[in-house]
Amino acid sequence: MDYDASIILCTINEIKTLPEVVSKIESVADFTYQIVFVDDNSRDGTRQFITEYCEKHENTKTAFNSSKRSLLIANYLGISKADGKLIIIMDADLQHPVERINDIFRKLKEGYDIVVASRYSPGGSTGNRKPIRGIISRIAGMSAKYFIKNSSETTDPLSGFFGFRKGMKLLIDERWRGYKTLLFLIASNPGAKIADVPYVFHERAAGKSKIVDGTDFFITYLTELVLVKRVETRVRSNDKIS
């Protein structure tokens, strides 16, 4: 089937939230869609739910990893399996309001290459997160905008909730570890036309975040930022040569 969009849902032990996310997608999506599930060896019944759901719904695909991989690589794997004309990436833990997928879809149909669901766009909000998390997020976001040129085109370059046109470049090495797929997408496509849509971020209702905290986060993020910068430099150098 020719789907308008593929929705990528990466999971690690999300049985408490995934059924509701999927149900909401069924209720609100005003376009034809495919769901691509990428599961990193869940042990709480998530994988069984996915298997049973896919048996009943043809508009699905799965990728089951035998061990935990980073969110960056899980998203990359999901994208590689997607059949939709557009790609929408979101969390499966209810932190991203499902209703906003229609806003992302409409903006992409208007002609934008990348549409970011932003916590910092007018009308958006970071919700009731802890102040320290807000500080860390702001510092990480400012550093991204400083080092990665086109990331300043969005108010939320670290968002995990975004859409883009299938076929856009996404230069990632499967050996890499990271979380910020959007940054790699932006760096891989320096001429991309980017737009924001606002959303209100919600704390996880259940389960554990896929992203590490504290010192481990900074080490992983800084390493990731170096890789993104390497991608951007490579792409821009090739553009100059051509």
Please describe the topology of this protein.
Blueprint: E1 5-11, H1 18-28, E2 33-40, H2 46-56, E3 60-65, H3 71-81, E4 86-91, H4 101-109, E5 114-118, H5 131-147, E6 162-165, H6 181-188, E7 194-198, H7 214-241
Parallel strand pairs: 1-2, 1-4, 2-3, 5-7
Antiparallel strand pairs: 4-6, 5-6
Written account of the structure:
The structure is a single chain. This protein is α/β, with parallel strands linked by helices and 242 residues long. 39% of the residues lie in helices and 17% in strands. It has one domain (5-241): Spore Coat Polysaccharide Biosynthesis Protein SpsA, Chain A (Alpha-Beta Complex). The protein contains 7 helices and 7 strands; from the N terminus they run E-H-E-H-E-H-E-H-E-H-E-H-E-H. A 7-stranded mixed β-sheet has the order 3-2-1-4-6-5-7, sandwiched between helices. The longest helix has 28 residues, at 214-241.
Fraction of residues in helix? 25-40%
Most strands sheet: 7 strands, mixed
Q: What would CATH call the architecture? A: Alpha-Beta Complex
Compressed to H and E, one letter per element, the order equals EHEHEHEHEHEHEH
**How many runs of DSSP E, i.e. beta strands?**
7
The proportion of strand residues reads: 15-25%
Helices, by number, come to 7
SS class: alpha/beta
In whole angstroms, how far apart are the ends?
37 Å
Q: What's the level 1 CATH class?
A: Alpha Beta
CATH homologous superfamily?
Spore Coat Polysaccharide Biosynthesis Protein SpsA, Chain A
Give the overall shape, derived from the CA principal axes: globular
Rounded radius of gyration (Å) = 17 Å
